[in-house]
Design a protein that fits this description.
The protein is mainly α and 111 residues long. The protein has helices at 11-24, 37-40, 51-65, 70-88, 95-103. The protein has a domain at 55-89.
């Protein structure tokens, strides 16, 4: 005779979780769900294509870039940023210290 089958330890919890999840999907009977004020005012607005809005924004940016005084200010800022970047390009660790680090710790100094 075969031994009786044993239930898996997590099986009951999984079934309970599935039943609770299914029960949560349904609206409770007899409960009035209020309508948000934004939906009570009427239908949502129509969706419009985004490309005309993006074209208008690009035209405004192009006009702002070509305005007098803006171009020279941007060029000066770009030059300052390039100079700052050039200053950051050097070695972070000086060569003598890098050589010492590359040599490592002598084994005799280790306990």
């Amino acid at each position: 005779m075969a031994p009786p089958a044993r239930a898996r330890p997590g099986g009951a919890a999984a079934v309970l979780a599935a039943l609770l999840a299914l029960a949560a999907c349904a609206a409770p009977p007899g409960v009035a769900i209020p309508v948000p004020p934004a939906e009570a005012l009427g239908p949502p607005p129509d969706l419009v294509p985004l490309s005309p809005l993006l074209a208008a924004a690009d035209a405004q940016q192009a006009a702002a870039r070509t305005a007098p005084g803006v171009s020279s200010a941007l060029e000066a800022r770009a030059a300052a940023l390039r100079a700052r970047a050039a200053g950051l390009r050097g070695d972070v660790v000086p060569a003598p210290l890098r050589d010492r680090l590359d040599a490592g710790v002598p084994r005799a100094a280790l306990p």
